[in-house]
Amino acid sequence: MSFVQPLFELRQVSQRFDRFSALHDVTLQIYEGERVALVGSSGAGKSTLIRLLNGTLRPTEGEVWALGRNLSGLSARQLRQVQRQIGTVYQQFHLVDNLAVIHNVNAGHLGRWPLFKALVSLVYPLEVKTAADALERVGIPEKLYARTDRLSGGQQQRVALARVLVQNPQAILADEPVASLDRELSREVMDLLCKLVEANKTLVVSLHSVELAQRYCDRIIGLRHGTVQFDVPSSNVSSALLEDLYRLR
Ligand SMILES: Nc1ncnc2c1ncn2[C@@H]1O[C@H](COP(=O)(O)OP(=O)(O)O)[C@@H](O)[C@H]1O
Ligand SMILES: [Mg+2]
Questions:
Q1: What pTM was estimated for this model as a whole?
Q2: Distance from the alpha carbon of residue 84 to the mean position of ligand 2, in angstroms
Q3: Is the CB of 40 inside a 6 Å radius of any atom of ligand 1?
Q4: 44 with 164, same domain?
């Protein structure tokens, strides 16, 4: 019998902030190559789940495993090694506004570069070709030396994607990556994101739009008040499930 280990796994995970329970007793597995969407109302726990998966948050209870490691059992150094293999894209891009695009793209190397190299690169950009190639792939090759805050929202999200390309992780997490973009740009950025994920990389993306979730992902997890309400193949998402997920009470 062959046994495939999940790339990510939550085992009875609960997350509390003070007394407030943001996630409650969540157990799930995500396998290599899956494209998983997280949907649910604001406050349902989507961002919390993503932060648990990339180890920026430690669960109050239960275990989070990523790439075969229990994240709670790792030293800071070991955790960084795992995090190097997990790229995260955020709604607000998380770029340094007053730097040139190339520096933000090169931040994808930071998990691997020693500090002095990172510092030198701020003055004399290193690996210019890698950065230029990444920008080419996301469709804005001409912006290499532009100041990041002069770019439009859609272009800034492309820079964030180029940074993940340079990082070249095994899995990509995206927390509402298109929430600040209009409908058409949302599609373009999602097309691009899925292209970067390619055949065998894993994608976990939280989305406001169920339509986008169904279009781009093969599995949809519905979160409500910190619990998993459903976890089904995209084609099995029915309007009854959605009404229940988004009902007010
Ligand atoms: N650092 C925090 N401190 C206190 N409460 C938090 C914190 N992070 C999230 N929460 C709360 O946890 C719940 C889930 O939040 P979140 O995961 O951001 O939901 P979503 O991304 O689905 O909108 C919300 O009620 C939010 O206010
Ligand atoms: Mg959120």
A1: 0.93
A2: 22
A3: yes
A4: no
